[in-house]
Design a protein that fits this description.
With 145 residues, this protein is mostly helical. The protein is built from seven helices and two strands; from the N terminus they run αααααααββ. The chain is flat and about 95 Å long.
Length: 145
């Protein structure tokens, strides 16, 4: 705020409560804020436009470039070791300086690793085994499976 010429006058006691200076400062801040917002939106629009063009023209290059934010596996492994040793969220937060969300993400990451590993395994039953109904054997009054 001290970079505005009108704010330098506020250092003088007689201009501190001047309403016209307050109005000018507010107006300048509003103009600069709107220019900054417009610039931000324009950059985001152009970035999205470039990404969409790349996705349409070269899907392989798009898949190679835009993978999203990757997990910090080293940090996750430290968190998971501490969790396995019986430490609670509060202790892990204090020792590693991470948030509770990061700890939950580490747990979710481990579960996803287990699921991905299980996908490669051979299933115990084939689909045809599961589709066939079981035969009901009647003994006395109550049917048994």
């Amino acid at each position: 705020m001290l970079s505005l010429p009108t704010t330098h006058r506020r250092l003088d006691v007689k201009y501190q409560d001047d309403s016209s200076l307050n109005l000018i400062d507010t107006l300048l801040f509003e103009v600069w804020a709107s220019c900054a917002r417009e610039d931000y939106e324009k950059r985001r629009y152009r970035q999205r436009e470039g990404i969409d063009n790349l996705k349409a023209q070269n899907p392989a290059e798009y898949a190679r470039k835009y993978k999203g934010k990757q997990p910090n596996t080293k940090n996750y492994e430290k968190i998971l070791k501490l969790l396995d040793n019986g430490l609670g969220y509060k202790d892990i937060k204090e020792s590693l300086g991470v948030s509770g969300t990061t700890i939950a993400n580490a747990k979710r990451w481990r579960n996803q690793q287990i699921i991905d590993k299980d996908k490669d395994m051979i299933p115990m039953f084939t689909e045809t085994d599961l589709d066939q109904p079981l035969k009901v054997v009647k003994r006395g009054r109550k049917p048994f499976l």
